[in-house]
Amino acid sequence: MKLYAERLPTAIRQLLTDLAVVVWVYLWIRAGLWVHDMVEKLAVPGQRLQSAGGGIADNLADAGGKINRVPLVGDQLVKPFNGAASAARAIADAGRQQQQLVHQSSVVLAIVAVAVPLALVLFLWLPLRLRWMRRAGVASAVRAEPAGRDLLALRALAGQPLDELTRLGPDIAQSWRNGDAEALDALAALELRRLGLTASGRRR
Questions:
Q1: Percent above pLDDT 90 for the chain
Q2: What digits encode the pLDDT tens for the residues 38-67?
Q3: What is the three-state SS of the chain?
Q4: What pLDDT does 77 receive?
Q5: Which has the closest alpha carbon to 195: 155, 150, 154?
Q6: Does residue 22 surpass a pLDDT of 90?
Q7: CA 161 to CA 29: how far, in whole Å?
Q8: Does 47 or 131 have the greater pLDDT score?
Q9: pTM exceeds 0.85 for this model
Q10: Least confidently predicted of 4-8, 58-62, 121-125, 185-189
Q11: By C-alpha distance, which of 178, 191, 177 is closest to 149?
Q12: Whole-angstrom distance, CA of residue 189 vs CA of residue 164
């Protein structure tokens, strides 16, 4: 496979496109991380709620333990403290659940923010880039061979626009059928030029 074309205009265009794609992916990853961080800040109230509820529950449980040691009436006096401690623990649990929900939401939103741009890269740009690399690699490998020149000429006749073919001469197809060397060379060069390659393999 060839990474870049041999003709400088095409190679520069490919390099700039590759750099743009890398920057595009980097910026969207940064955007996904930013979304994650912004949503995570919504968990702060839940953290405070969990901390406050847990602290109140511990204090009430500690006070209830001390009151429970009061002779005769301790069992009766400790019930309100136990009930309040249970309510405080429920508040702490609610804060913990809120944090979990925020964390899950931040991950999902970050993935959604990054998924669409990455999908465009993976399913649009990357297949086209790999297809060019494969075709250019094959063309560069066969261009010096007589059979390869014939194949490139045939590929040019089948795939090049008519206006490009007619510039080579009105009888270019008949010349190709007759095996005219100049026609074959011109058609092969046309196909190589479309791929950003040169007939000699030298960069220019």
A1: 23
A2: 888 888 887 787 787 777 777 776 766 666
A3: CCCCCCCHHHHHHHHHHHHHHHHHHHHHHHHHHHHHHHHHHHHHHHHHHHHHHHHHHHHHHHHHHHHCCCCCCHHHHHHHHHHHHHHHHHHHHHHHHHHHHHHHHHHHHHHHHHHHHHHHHHHHHHHHHHHHHHHHHHHHHHCCCHHHHHHHHHHHHHHCCHHHHHCCCCCHHHHHHCCCHHHHHHHHHHHHHHCCCCCCCCCC
A4: 62
A5: 155
A6: yes
A7: 40
A8: 131
A9: no
A10: 58-62
A11: 191
A12: 12
197 burial (CB, 10 Å; 0-12 / 13-18 / 19+) is buried
Angstrom distance (rounded) from CA 185 to CA 193: 12
Task: For residues 133-143, give the mean pLDDT.
Answer: 87
Tokens linked to 127: 């297949």
- Count of CB atoms situated within 10 Å of the CB of 42: 15
The domain ranges of the chain are 1-134, 143-204
Instruction: Give CA–CA dist 10/136, Å, rounded.
Output: 12
User: pLDDT at residue 70 above 80?
Assistant: no
Task: Using alpha carbons, select from 160, 204, 156 the residue that is nearest to residue 183.
Answer: 156
Q: Are 7 and 192 in contact (CB under 8 A)?
A: no
- Mean pLDDT over 176-196 rounds to 84
Could you tell me the CA-to-CA distances from 162 to 9, 23, 173 in Å, in that order?
Answer: 23, 38, 11
Q: What is the pLDDT of residue 54?
A: 78
Asked if 103 and 36 count as a contact pair (C-beta separation under 8 A), the reply is no
